[in-house]
Amino acid sequence: MPLPDLSSRRRFLKQTFAFSAASLLGQGVRYVDAAEVSKENLQLLMFGDWGASKDTKAQSAVASGMEAYVKQLKFTPESIFLLGDNFYGECKGGVNCPRWKEQFEDMYPAEVFPGKCHAMLGNHDYDDDKGMLQAELDYAAAHPGTRWSLPAKWYALETPLVRFLVLDSNYHNRKVSLTADEKAAQMAWLEKELAKPRKSQWLVVMGHHPLYSNGVHGDDQALIDAWDILFREHKVDFYFCGHDHDLQHTEFEGHPTSFVVSGGGGARAREIKEMRHGPFGLAVYGFTHLEVSPEKFVVRHIDANRKQLHAFSKDRVGKVTILS
Ligand SMILES: [Fe+2]
User: Fold this and answer.
1) How far is the CA of 239 from the centre of ligand 1 (A)?
2) Is the predicted pLDDT of residue 109 greater than 50, yes or no?
3) pLDDT for residue 27
């Protein structure tokens, strides 16, 4: 089902960003061709803000679009990253709430997406139902064979190509968030993890909340103060997050980290507030496709109709190239 693009026009190619004019020309909104996706590479999908509580039409449309996308491009994603706000509203029954089946197990069918689904916690996972936070941590143990994976509030994942550090970014929720002790423990863990010798080519950090955002929530000074200096110091390649219900890509001159928001998984898309960062931001339902090789990391923002809205690659020395 086609979904409305909530932006009156595409608001990408922010002029304050210092890419060359030639690299900004790109190829426009288009379908990805199967020949562009190599079976040799690691294929991952990610989206956040997906577990809408009442109207699931948009979530279904994004899920269907993602299914059509992988079928058309003939690849099976190794895994999916669920960038938080996994359940909005009530979910009675905890690990046995029927929404698990309707909005996770059946919504993203195992025949199409057989890999693990690595989750992280958003503000709604803390806020909306007091039992849901623990249920998300307990669900995999209660349902052996599920693809859902949330082993802890923060955790590391190692693959031969990528080291993923998944964080709990709930620093200042309206109702509940990480405690002071948890924040300190996570920071100590993060510093220790980042200081480990790098075995894989790519270093990725993920959390639900953006540090930098053009969306309604804006920049998060608490997270910037806590984490940005570590990202610079340890040359983190990417920070992936959701929270703002849109798709974004932000680069800063001289900063080793590419900041990517993928919050279009199904909760009501919201307008971009102000394009303070670039090169890309669009309020739209969709998901993000990551294609990884030792030489290149490609990020593609895809809408619910399978169209690529924005894509860029990063090479081994950190050079970012806008592809569309
Ligand atoms: Fe959120």
Assistant:
1) 16
2) yes
3) 55
